[in-house]
Amino acid sequence: MSGVACKKGEEMTRLLNEIIELVEREFFDTTFLKERWNAIKVQVQEDYAKATSVAERERLLNTLLVQIGTSHTLLITPELSAKIDRAEQEKTESALSYEEVDGVLFAELTSFQVRSIRREERAKFADALAEVDTLILDMRVNSGGSCSAVASFASLFLLPNLPVANVRDREGLQRKHATISPPIPEEENIDHAKEVELMQTHHYLQFQTGGEEMPHFSGEVVILISKDCYSCGEVFVQVMKEEGRAKVVGERSSGAVVAGTVYELRNGYSLLLPFALIESGRGTVLEGRGVEPDVEMSFNEMTSQKIVRELRHQKLIG
What we know:
Elements: H1 3-26, H2 30-50, H3 54-66, E1 74-76, H4 78-90, E2 96-101, E3 104-109, H5 119-129, E4 134-138, H6 147-154, E5 163-168, E6 179-180, H7 193-202, E7 204-208, E8 220-225, H8 231-242, E9 247-250, E10 258-264, E11 270-280, E12 295-296, H9 304-313
Parallel strand pairs: 3-4, 4-8, 6-7, 8-9, 9-12
Antiparallel strand pairs: 1-11, 2-3, 5-7, 5-11, 10-11
Helix pairs in contact: 1-2, 2-3, 6-8
C-alpha cells in the first residue's frame, strides 16, 4: 500500500471512530445502545478493517447508520454537502401558496423551514382565511423543518398555550416535566440552530401555540397527506387531528419524526444524527408509525378543482 493510500486509510478509520463516539454520546435511544449497538459496531469495524477503498468504507459507514433504525440518519460526504449547500441557496420562495377554488381556500404547504414560512407570510395567509369558511391544506409533499414554525402556524387554528410538540433527548426521556420553549425570534433561528441549542440545553422541551396577533381561523379544515409528508409536517397534522381541528384525508405519512442535527466531522464529512425523540403535544410518538388519515383516499394527479369537487362529493367539506 502506498504512503498516500495508507494515510487515507488512517483518516477514514479516524472518521469511523468519530462517528461511533458521536452515536454513543448523542443518540437518544439508550435501550438500543445497550442491547444492539455493540454487536453492530464490532461487525462494521471488522469489515471496515478489510476495506481497501474510500467508496467501500463510505458504504460500510452508511451500513452502520442504517442499522440504527431511525430516520434523520445520514453520512454526508463532501460531494453531497456541496449539493445541499447549492440547494439551500436556491430556496428563496415561500413554502406556502394558496388560491380560492369554488369558495374554498386551497393551500399547499411544502415545508416548515423557518425561512420559508415567516411571520409576514402567515399574516397574509390569515387575511386570506378570513374571507372563507373552509380550508383544504395540501401537505402531501412536506419536507418538515422546525418545531417552532409548527407552533407558530398552528397558532392560526388553535387556542394559545396548547402543547404542539415535545422534544426529548436521552436525559429528557427520563424526566416527567417539560420546559416550555420561549418564543424564538425568527431572525435568530433561520437555520434552526437556536432551536436545537434550546433542545439540547433543556433536554425535554415543549413547544406551545402562542398568541399570534393575527385573525384566528375557526372554520372547517381538511388536511391532505401522503407518504411524502415528513417530520415536523407530520407533527402539525397530528396535533390538528388530536385537537379535533381537522379531518385528515389521504395516505399514512412517512413516520420520520425525530430531532436531528448535523455534526461536522473531519475532511469535509458530516453526520446527520437524531439526538432526540419528537412527540405530539399529547405525547404521541410518530417515528416509524406516521399519521393515520381519518379517511383513506388517493388523489393521483387531480387538480385542486377536482379535489374540491371530490371532497364535496364525499361530504368531507360543506
